[in-house]
Amino acid sequence: MSNNNNVQIDEFTKLSVPKKIGYACGDFACNMSWSLVSAYLVFFLTDIALIPGATVGILIFISKFWDAVNDPVIGSLADHTNTKWGRYRPWVMFAFMPMLIFNVLTFTTFPEWSTGARTWWGLGMYFILVLLYTMVNVTYSAMPALMTRDTETRSSLSSYRMTGAFIAMIVLSYLTLRVVNRFGGGAAGYRNAAIFFSALAIPFFLITIFSTKEIVKIDDTVGEKVGFITQFKALKGNWPVIQIAIAFFAWGIIQGGMTFRLYFCTYNAQNELLYANTQTLWSVMGMIGAFSVTYLVKRVKNKGTLGGVAFSIIAVASIISYFLPIQSSGAQAIYYVMQGLVGLGSGMMLGNVFGMMPDTAEYTYDKYGIYVAGFLSTFINFMLKVGQAVSISGAAALLDRVGYVPGGEQSAKVLFTMNFGSHMFVGLCCIVAAIALFNYKLDKKTYNEIVERLREKGMAN
């Protein structure tokens, strides 16, 4: 492949620890919005903004459909971006501040307004937040494909990234309800908490922007011209991408389980802080699991094996949690252990699967002759959002259908629904994802053979 620079750049560079930490800061910052929305938005809309559960379910579902529209568009635009700052990095640079502003507005409501006005406000603010988050996070996820071609370094970047994400989850899990209550609770409490966490994200985004660099050069004159429709053709028979997409769909389901868990701890266990405490433990163990991938990935021939093991751990721990008599102190102690294991498995899975995603760019480049790392990232992240749409919007709509009463006494049917959605449903979906990853075919040997072919064609340095 031609390179306009006089100095040949080693695209298989192994990045230093400070550069990996710099990249990881971006996911810490992203989760000041992502985790806050995933864990608390439905509860905020039903119990604080007082929007009916069925309406909230429709609102979330429509927003995810909106994601379906804008994801591939953003991915395609990013793939065609060519600036002095890189291909994907400038999207993070210019979109993160607007995203944080709408993060605050999404958690802002006006109790004196009518239900219709509060609903339209909530829908509008969240719609814009979804678009801005796509601009930031999808391109951030695609960056490792252009930071290095070394597959183990990519996995290490993913491991560091998810460690940063889980540190953010620890902060949010422990502080969110406490910050909300510190600021007086209710609408003002949630708005001020969103301001606090959004402000916290700013310096971490800046660290990522100033410490990362895209060095992999893609010559768009080599291979097939990439049109919008051509990108979708690259999904046909692309099993590595499809298998990772299945894993991300399952992770979206787990996010819905988190939504149910806040209700589960509040009403089934009658202990609201059980959620904050177990989420904190979940995040600590997730951080350990994510960081372990840096070392574990060197000891396996196929990254899919680690993902399959991780999903299996989540599945077993979630299913055991479903059967616990949660109001007893002994059962709650076991519940802490099980949620710790769910966190460990989640960290391993995310640290590993995000490291698998960039490798599919070379696989697709070799098989289809087009380089579309951004588009593949948007497709895989879209499946994550589909999982969220099914589980989070489904959670709100289902609770409304079975007779959920905000702040009131719940029927046996409602309590069963909260337990099943939090645990059994998550476990069953994780079994499907584990099967998909245990059958992942893009192992290290195959990847290295692909890279050699690309070099022979002049499509890699």
Explain what this protein looks like in three dimensions.
It contains 16 helices and no strands. By secondary structure, the protein is an all-alpha fold. The protein has one domain (17-456): Up-down Bundle (Growth Hormone, Chain: A). Helix 4 packs antiparallel against helix 14 (373-402) and helix 6 crosses helix 12 (329-356). The protein starts with 16 loop residues before the first helix and ends in a 5-residue tail after the last helix.
Characterize the overall form.
globular
Quote the average pLDDT. 87
Largest sheet: none
Number of strands: 0
Rg over alpha carbons:
22 Å
Feature tags:
single chain; globular
Short description:
The chain contains 16 helices and no strands. Helix 11 runs antiparallel to helix 12. 77% of the residues lie in helices and 0% in strands.
Write the SSE topology.
Blueprint: H1 17-48, H2 53-79, H3 89-106, H4 115-142, H5 144-147, H6 151-182, H7 186-211, H8 228-233, H9 239-268, H10 272-296, H11 303-322, H12 329-356, H13 359-368, H14 373-402, H15 412-438, H16 444-456
